[in-house]
TrEMBL record:
Belongs to the short-chain dehydrogenases/reductases (SDR) family. Signal peptide: none annotated. The lineage of its organism: Bacteria, Pseudomonadati, Bacteroidota, Cytophagia, Cytophagales. It comes from Dyadobacter endophyticus. InterPro entries: NAD(P)-bd_dom_sf, Sc_DH/Rdtase_CS, SDR, SDR_fam. This is Short-chain dehydrogenase.
Length: 262
């Protein structure tokens, strides 16, 4: 896919967490094409180190990791205009509530809820001072369609993130900062493949059977396929642009029609 974004994000500084692969990489590339200065974070260096982004190695599931990112960006760039809280994921075993330990629950909430909360807290004061800024929280349709047998802590954390995002938007919208939630459904990424492999190992089946079971649990995807990362990135690119200047406090679902209710 190739679009002409006419440099609409020129002079904007953006951070995309988990921006080295999957949907995060697609979002970072989309913002770069729109003219933004883009910083990405991940635990490990991206395979493509020459794509024009600035990289900060950090484990955002730890408070020290988020503080490192905040400090480095403010020291080097002075401020942040756009924050995409994209990092997230599930590494807990399948098998329902009985196989989940406190550590499983705590790890999911650190990664999927508390990391965005800490980054927001680090960058919001500057946005409020300048009376401008955009924060996007990447949640998940699992906030509404939890998969109890495979990703229960992840789903609960994403539901908390969506609730927090709405509340935060009400607080900071009068101060010039827009806060939005994007909730994707199934996205065709390497992380999705790894999750299917973990479920398959837990269940004793194949990755294909695991994928079919997840699809069945979701009720199917009316569009007939998973989303491409670039499709999620295009929605995010619009939401952070001046064309979406009146949008705040809303959740945007991009799931191919998976959620069966309005």
């Amino acid at each position: 896919m190739d679009f002409n974004f006419e440099n609409e994000l020129k002079d904007k500084i953006a951070l995309v967490t988990g921006g080295s692969k999957g949907a995060g990489k697609a979002i970072a590339d989309r913002l770069l094409k729109a003219g933004a200065t883009v910083i990405i974070t991940a635990r490990n260096k991206p395979e493509d180190e020459n794509n024009g982004t600035h990289f900060i190695a950090a484990d955002l599931s730890k408070p020290d990791g988020t503080q490192k990112v905040v400090n480095e960006i403010l020291e080097k760039f002075g401020h942040l205009d756009i924050l995409i809280n994209n990092m997230g994921g599930s590494e807990t075993p399948g098998g329902g509530f009985a196989v989940l330990s406190d550590s499983d629950w705590e790890g999911s909430f650190q990664t999927n809820l508390l990391a965005p909360v800490r980054l927001d807290r680090g960058f919001l004061p500057g946005m409020i001072e300048r009376h401008e800024g955009v924060i996007i929280h990447i949640a998940s349709i699992q906030a509404k369609l939890p998969l109890y047998d495979s990703t229960l802590p992840y789903a609960a954390a994403k539901a908390a993130l969506a609730n927090y995002s709405k509340s935060l938007s009400n607080e900071v919208a009068p101060k010039g900062v827009r806060v939005l939630t994007v909730s994707p459904g199934w996205i065709m990424t390497d992380a999705s493949t790894r999750m299917m492999e973990r479920i398959a190992r837990s269940s004793g089946g194949t990755a294909e059977e695991a994928a079919n079971s997840v699809m069945d649990a979701l009720g199917g995807i009316p569009f007939g396929r998973a989303a491409w990362p670039e499709e999620v990135a295009e929605l995010v690119g619009f939401l952070v642009s001046p064309r979406a200047a009146y949008l705040t406090g809303s959740e945007y679902v991009i799931d191919g029609g998976t959620i069966p209710t309005i």
